Amino acid sequence: MKDLILHVSELNRPWRGNDPFLFCAYHIDNYPEGNGQLGIDLHHLNDRTLGNDFSHLHGYSMYHGHSVPGFPAHPHRGFETVTIVRSGYVDHADSLGGMARYGAGDVQWLTAGQGIQHAEMFPLVHTDKTNTLELFQIWLNLPSHKKMVPPAFKMLWSETIPRYCNNGASVEVIAGQLHLLDQNQALRPPSPPENSWAADDNAEVAIWLVTLQPGATLTLPAARLNENQRTLYVFDGMGLQIDSQSVGTSKLIQVDALQPLPVANYGEKQVQFLLLQGVPLNEPVVAEGPFVMNTEAEIHQAKLDYRRSHFGDWLWANYEPVYGSSEQRFARYPGQVEIGIPPSDSHKEERHD
User: Fold this and answer.
1) What CATH number is associated with residue 154?
2) Mean per-residue pLDDT for 138-144?
3) Domain check: are 126 and 95 in the same one?
4) Number of structural domains the chain divides into
5) Terminal CA-to-CA distance of the chain, rounded, Å?
6) Do 266 and 215 contact (CB within 8 A), yes or no?
7) Angle CA(125)–CA(155)–CA(63) in degrees, nearest 5?
8) Whole-prediction pTM value?
9) Structural domain containing residue 117
10) Given 279, 306, 335, which residue is the final one in a domain?
């Protein structure tokens, strides 16, 4: 039998991606109590370089935010972002008129395509306790023939994301169906946007978040297609074993996607890892900041187009918009009315409250 584990390396930030994934940024910040305006009082911020703070001083970063942490309006072209928010909230606004507040396990899937400008702010809704934010943002490449598709975003509400739980093992199935031996049918997540590489069955893209409590075991199924690549990002816990081999924590592990993946936790604390899987695009990648294309000429054109059009009109009063102190999650797509989260027993894509 071929070796199951192909390569192990340290998990440096941002986490390196394997084609078709570009990278994954993992943020966990423990922000202080909010100031009632969804931000942090300035006297807490005197020792930071506001507008460019990645210091993680006192357990958090402001990133490019000035009062409210987050990422004010910025452009993208040529790829997709998949943002998984496990704790805290993200306020989204974009140059097409879309807006959303999501968190508590929600996922936003944004196809930048030919170009979009968006803001991602982290509102501090709690004024009486710590505001913890934990999120993953995965950059998924687009094939050359889809790099200039119309931009779009889609909410995958937590209530619609299937989860497998059994004997201390759990899997959040964000992309790619999961069919385990003890399941009578596959767990199928909501579909990604129509122009996503993940929407192609021949891409066999999977995004699974796995948690193993002490003593838990699980065998994940093999991929179907020969070209597929599978990578594990072990970000929590020390006790993970893969096929009876201990691997430790803070590791990037490439495994043979065509073999079943037996994992176990023999440590004293929980283990968590993110699994990314997909058939490579095998195309040239030329990336510069927020643009990911196939050639230098296309990057140059992206810059020109952004200077000319800003990828649409910015309708908001500022470049760091937030939406009030309510914890209500919602989405408003361009040209549509506001839509709330679906009921917990719903597996439809959207439903009015």
Assistant:
1) 2.60.120.10
2) 98
3) yes
4) 2
5) 53
6) yes
7) 45
8) 0.94
9) 21-160
10) 279
